[in-house]
């Protein structure tokens, strides 16, 4: 039997309990680290669990940035340089990835504070995470403010991708489980994944 929760009941809970409930309700999400750098060359690294595919042609990927007062550095760096990296998270690095969500002051690199390794590739000013087996580079394209809660949809176009050999299947599908990529639930839950199936394109007949 299901237990019913009304909005009015949720609003009586303390804000942390309510946030954990609602953040978990939307289900499992991607788990990634976004790498950026500011104009002074100071790197920044932040964990995100709301990165979404927006389209394949053109190849667009978006993420939700929290209000600037709570999380200013990633968005400021992206707007300043126009380039950023996305690095998927594995079991060997999830605790360090989680720690990047701490509110370090401006001018302090999360790479240094967490022990993750900056990796620079030709043609990309922003750092990749060397420990991540799946990495890609995005070019900033559009910022869409969401007035309801003062957040922002940040849209980037895919420029480069780096994936382990043997992970791509014949139809182009990337079996991320082969690389040990984790998923997240809420703001603090981390889970392993196992592939169940890869179904063919659905048709009416």
Automatic annotation (TrEMBL):
Sorted UniProt keywords: Flavoprotein, FMN
Pfam family, one: Flavin_Reduct
Keyword Flavoprotein tagged: yes
Entry cofactors: FMN
Taxonomic superkingdom: Bacteria
GO molecular function, one term: FMN binding
Protein name, UniProt field: Flavin oxidoreductase
Family: Belongs to the flavoredoxin family.
InterPro entries xrefs: Flavin_Rdtase-like_dom, Split_barrel_FMN-bd
Sequence ranges assigned to domain Flavin reductase like in this UniProt record: 32-170
């Amino acid at each position: 039997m299901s237990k019913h929760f009304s909005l009015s009941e949720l609003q009586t809970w303390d804000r942390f309990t309510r946030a954990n409930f609602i953040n978990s309700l939307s289900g499992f999400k991607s788990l990634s680290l976004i790498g950026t750098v500011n104009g002074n060359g100071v790197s920044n690294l932040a964990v995100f669990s709301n990165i979404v595919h927006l389209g394949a042609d053109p190849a667009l990927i978006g993420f939700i940035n929290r209000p600037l007062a709570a999380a200013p550095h990633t968005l400021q760096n992206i707007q300043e340089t126009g380039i950023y990296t996305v690095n998927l998270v594995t079991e060997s690095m999830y605790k360090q990835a989680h720690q990047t969500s701490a509110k370090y002051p401006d001018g302090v690199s999360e790479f240094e504070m967490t022990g993750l390794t900056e990796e620079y590739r030709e043609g990309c000013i922003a750092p990749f995470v060397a420990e991540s087996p799946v990495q890609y580079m995005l070019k900033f394209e559009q910022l869409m403010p969401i007035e309801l809660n003062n957040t922002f949809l940040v849209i980037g176009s895919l420029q480069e991708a780096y994936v382990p050999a043997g992970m791509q299947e014949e139809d182009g599908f990337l079996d991320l489980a082969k690389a040990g990529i984790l998923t997240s639930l809420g703001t603090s839950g981390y889970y392993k994944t196992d592939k169940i199936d890869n179904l063919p394109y659905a048709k009416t007949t």
